[in-house]
Amino acid sequence: MAAAQSTLALRRDAVVRVVEKVRPSVVNIKAVGLVQVPRRSLFDQLFSGTWGMDQPVQREQSLGSGVIISPKGYVVTNEHVVEGASQISVSLVDGRELGASVVGSDLENDLALLRLEVGAEHGPLPHLQLAPRTDLMVGEKAIAIGNPFGLQSTVTAGVISALNRTVTSPRSGRTYTDFIQTDASINPGNSGGALVDIAGDLVGINSAIIESAQGIGFAIPASRARRVVDDLLRFGHVRPLWMGVVFRSVSAHGKKVLPGGVQRGILVRKVLTDSPAGRAGLHPGDLVVGVDDKPVRSVAQLRTKVASMSAGGSLRLSVIGAQGQTSVTLTPARPPADIGRRVLDRYLGVAVGDSRAGVVVRQVRSGSPADQTGLQPGDLVLAVHGQQVNTVSDVNRVVASDPDASSILMVVGRGGYAYNLTFPLDE
After folding, report:
1. Which CATH superfamily is domain 339-424 in?
2. Which of 105, 191, 223, 298 is catalytic?
3. Most Cβ neighbours (<10 Å): which of 77, 87, 242, 380?
């Protein structure tokens, strides 16, 4: 008996102790929604909705993982796990099954926040703190816990393979440069689960962003997830921060030489007056070569940095400009209420207003991009960035969702016709 106990103590190593600590906080999520079934025959397509033939619907179920991050029952998971769900149930390791509702979600970051339906009889729930981490090390142990393929509380272990990986989300198209890469297996169903270190601290939210990957898994860093969760708790949606500047990634190649002999940086193309970038002293033609004392190589890298910041935080930019290399402090802020009107006026040279017909072009500045494209007073702005707009307030709302975009996509109506127009801002 003593020998068996000694062997058991030897086998209960650091990984086992972490799993025992963490597993109760990782849950299985079952989301059920109703989806329309496409009509198969031409007759069905032509006559659906008539003679009582409604579009058929069927129940669709998705499985995923989540992490309890508060004793009050808040759960963070991936947005795609609960997208379109009409009913959500969450299973804990101890067998309890609880209902849940969506507090808010964010497609851009593929994160969602749920609230479990708990009462006093459930007692305090096990949870992990979602705290930003800045000291992760490549090579340190990493443990992933989730429900791949519906197999509850599956544990995989490995190491952190790389930090600051650039990954493009196939859902939103947004490129992030801060993903944690691990060789701990992360498969479909692991999405939304926990990635923890050998101390049992939550370092990331797992994301099966590349489903066919073998031995390569990714996790959304806790710092970005914390920012998203904070906004979802306060506002029910993520409120992007605004810099008021259009950047373009540039690199030295061939005969092209960048100022200061640097190989890569981001070039300032446009700056909005009375914006955080304008107040920081950035000017068109400046070259940003560093952020917070680290080299910056691309616009995506800077945008990822801003996506992880809370309102009131600042960036220290190393800038090469007309006065040589200097350092400026940029404090991103919430976009102003009239951000859409400002962007169209400053970048495109078009003034818009409300009318009975919708958003109408009031004025086009001579020689502006709008003028060169052929916009005229009286044209109607029907959509911006793929979203229908009926008022200038709608334009402001859509532009505010990505206030520092490098292009403006518009659908303009004239004489019964609609025209798709793209205005690159970083050229």
Report:
1. PDZ domain (2.30.42.10)
2. 191
3. 77
